[in-house]
Specification:
Helix content: 55-70%
Number of helices: 32
Radius of gyration: 50 Å
Shape: elongated
Number of strands: 2
Structural class: mainly alpha
Length: about 750
């Protein structure tokens, strides 16, 4: 029988399979719950028994109740009432029992574990005592654990109750933790941290930043020296994107972003890395092949994590929510996001063939959805030089169609179909692997792109002529005007002239309109019979409105317009118009900065070569009909042939040496050879190139000035490399060369800029 019972208790293997692990755990918990409930009942009855015995000894017949439910106030009242009861009110049996208990003093010293009855008359008490005395006692070493009853689980066998132990807080541990915290607070108060001054803080930050830079440089050098062996160091370098030191966190993160970008550009292969198949993973390979696979796998994974980090930086900037554990301020989010976007753009340009290039496009393109006019200026970066404008985009570069199965079946044999299929498969793979696209496909892409750009430009011209986007539109039209279809020329010129005549445009925007109009007319517009005299008139009267300060905003546009309007259209320009423009340009050169004067004088030199009869402006004795009218806004009727270029003599005494050379060269008649000719570095450059080459944007002399002091002769006088006496000598030397005293404003400017 025992063996059978044991077999029933141990579940079979089949039963274990059917019974889930959760059910077995529930059954075990149910069993433990039942055991605990029986123990609780046993302890409760034990307490009641002890209380009954104590009451019997102390002659206080109190009913067996839970001592926790008792209240001290009621108990005291009950004791007073019991003490107040007289003995004559008690029953005879009770009095006799109390007397017998008083005579038997051994009751107080008797061992309660013995099963000897107290009196034979009370059979009920005897049975209760015997029952509890026979149960083995267990010592309670650990405190009782309270259970929390959860929702039951129902299965095939029935409802299974669920319980969980209530966590017990140890008061001793809490006291120890509080004592430790007090000790730490005392230590902190005893040794306060010394506050650093601003200078000390800056020095400390500089040291930290230098250490981080050296660490970044060491990791980058190790990766570049052997990428396959040190690919794991990319992870260490990428972990610095989470720099937590608030003093250098922003700077270090920017440096790491740029460093990783340059590393990926250098170590990334020239092909796309595809994931390995299960068959390729299971096959055995050589050590070199396995090493290459590990390198490619690590490179792709780190490149992916790096792109995810950049994406998160952009998202943080968009959300503008400060993280709790972040050490970067909200203001720094914008700088980090800018560096991240620039790095993404660099990677897209440098690695268009590599993995995740589509993901980068998806991340960058939504950022263009902005009302800022700088977004529209990105169209100017399109490198589109030619498009197919004669045909529709649908007719351009029709893709090669492969034969269908029905066509192959009709015209080819079974063996030919097999070879044709293999040939088409190979051709598709070659097209996918080809990095550079064909010229026809590129032409189609350029045409479709430019059509979208022109639709955007024309929509703004038609519906938002007073929008701040108009300057970017006009600048874009000026660049791509030679690619516009001839059908739109008439309407576009009318719109541009209307914008100029409205007076709502700034001088710079009106210059863009003029530039766009002449770009249209210089290309396919030659076949059109259009008189652009109104655009010449507008440019002629706009020249004196140019900004003569440090910005030089419109001078570069004017130089480009003059090249298109006068030099390239020399056959359509009259001599009177050329004379008027040369005279006004020389007058303008007196008022602008040196680099602008050089560009304007270089344009004047080209015009004198293009129109040789304009040399009459160098002869003061020549006379013609009428009087020169400089205030007249029509270049054809201002009688410019009756004046002379006296401005060149003033420019010959200019403080800038290159302006002096150009002025002397033009006075001599702009010769190509001889003593009056220019040096090759000046004569071979265009006006726009000279304007950029001699820019004074950094508020320094360009070219730098040499000292007249023999002690430091040949050295450049810039910054702190000279004394005040050398500065005075410099001013005196310039004064003697130009034969006039320098203006007071220029003397102050010279001292402040050089100091």
């Amino acid at each position: 029988m025992k063996a059978r019972r044991n077999k029933k208790q141990i579940p079979s293997f089949r039963k274990l399979i059917k019974t889930s692990k959760v059910k077995l755990e529930n059954k075990l918990k149910n069993k433990q719950f039942k055991q605990q409930s029986t123990l609780k009942k046993y302890r409760k009855e034990q307490r009641k028994l002890r209380q009954a015995v104590k009451d019997a000894v102390s002659k206080k017949p109190i009913p067996l109740e839970n001592p926790k439910e008792k209240r001290p106030g009621k108990r005291i009242e009950r004791e007073e009432e019991e003490e107040a009861l007289p003995l004559d009110m008690m029953d005879e049996d009770d009095l006799q029992l109390m007397k017998d208990l008083g005579q038997r003093a051994s009751f107080l010293t008797r061992d309660l574990s013995s099963s000897e009855p107290v009196h034979a008359k009370k059979r009920k008490h005897e049975r209760i005592i015997d029952k509890y005395e026979k149960i083995p006692r267990t010592l309670q070493t650990a405190p009782e654990k309270e259970l929390i009853h959860l929702l039951p689980i129902k299965d095939e066998s029935g409802i299974i109750p669920q319980t969980r132990e209530k966590p017990v807080t140890d008061s001793n541990k809490d006291e120890e933790d509080q004592e430790e915290e007090r000790e730490l607070e005392e230590e902190i108060t005893e040794d306060p941290i010394q506050e650093l001054t601003i200078e000390e803080h800056l020095i400390e930050r500089k040291k930290k930043l230098q250490e981080k830079k050296m660490h970044i440089a060491a990791l980058a050098s190790a990766i570049l020296s052997d990428p396959e062996s040190n690919i794991k160091k990319l992870k260490e370098l990428r972990s610095m994107l989470m720099e937590q030191d608030p003093d250098v966190a922003v700077t270090v993160r920017k440096l790491v972003i740029v460093s990783l970008m340059e590393l990926f550009k250098d170590i990334t292969p020239s092909y796309k890395i595809r994931p390995l198949t299960e068959a390729e993973k299971s096959t055995k390979t050589r050590k070199e092949t396995q090493k290459l696979r590990e390198f490619e796998e690590g490179l792709v994974s780190q490149y992916k994590f790096y792109l995810e980090n950049l994406e998160q930086m952009v998202k943080d900037w968009k959300q503008r929510k400060l993280k709790k554990s972040n050490v970067v301020s909200l203001k720094a989010y914008k700088g980090l996001a800018e560096v991240a976007v620039k790095s993404l753009c660099e990677l897209l340009v440098a690695l268009p063939h590599f993995n995740f290039h589509n993901n980068i496009i998806v991340l960058i393109v939504p950022l263009m959805n902005d009302v800022s006019k700088s977004m529209l200026k990105t169209f100017l970066c399109l490198r589109i030089k030619e498009v197919e404008v004669k045909k529709d985009t649908e007719d351009i570069n029709k893709p090669k169609k492969f034969m269908t199965f029905k066509e192959k079946r009709k015209s080819l044999s079974r063996m030919q179909r097999k070879w044709k299929k293999a040939e088409e498969k190979l051709e598709r793979e070659l097209r996918e692997a080809e990095a550079s696209e064909s010229a026809e496909k590129k032409l189609k892409l350029h045409t479709e792109t430019l059509n979208i750009v022109f639709v955007t430009y024309f929509r703004i011209l038609k519906k938002a002529q007073r929008s701040p986007l108009l300057p970017a539109v006009l600048e874009g039209l000026a660049k791509f005007a030679h690619l516009i279809n001839v059908e739109f020329f008439d309407d576009l010129l009318v719109v541009l002239h209307t914008l100029i005549e409205s007076g709502d445009l700034s001088y710079q925007e009106s210059l863009h309109c003029v530039q766009t109009a002449f770009h249209i007319l210089s290309g396919q517009g030659d076949v059109l019979n259009i008189d652009p005299m109104k655009f010449y008139t507008h440019l002629y009267k706009t020249l004196f409105k140019l900004h003569a300060g440090a910005t030089n905003e419109g001078v570069e546009i004017v130089l480009q317009c003059l090249d298109v309007m006068l030099t390239k259209r020399r056959k359509q320009v009259s001599q009177q118009r050329a004379l008027a423009f040369i005279k006004r340009l020389c007058t303008l050169a007196l008022h602008v900065l040196p680099n602008s004067s050089i560009g304007i004088l270089a344009t004047t030199r080209i015009l004198m070569h293009t129109f040789p009869k304009t040399d009459l402006l160098l002869d003061s004795e020549s006379q013609g009909s009428g009087v020169f009218l400089p205030e007249l806004e029509e270049p054809e009727y201002c009688n410019a042939q009756n004046t002379a270029l006296w401005e060149l003599h003033a420019l010959r005494r200019h403080y800038h040496p290159i302006v002096q050379r150009f002025a002397a060269h033009l006075i001599a008649g702009a010769p190509s050879e001889g003593s009056g000719a220019l040096k090759p570095e000046l004569s071979r450059r265009s006006a726009a190139e000279l304007f950029e080459a001699y820019s004074m944007a950094e508020m320094t002399f360009n070219p730098p000035v040499e000292s007249s002091n023999p002690k430091i002769k040949g050295k450049v006088l810039q910054g702190d490399s000279f004394l005040n006496e050398d500065l005075n000598q410099l001013i005196k030397r310039y004064s003697s060369e130009v034969a006039t005293e320098l203006p007071l404003d220029f003397t102050k400017y010279l001292k402040t800029s050089l100091h």
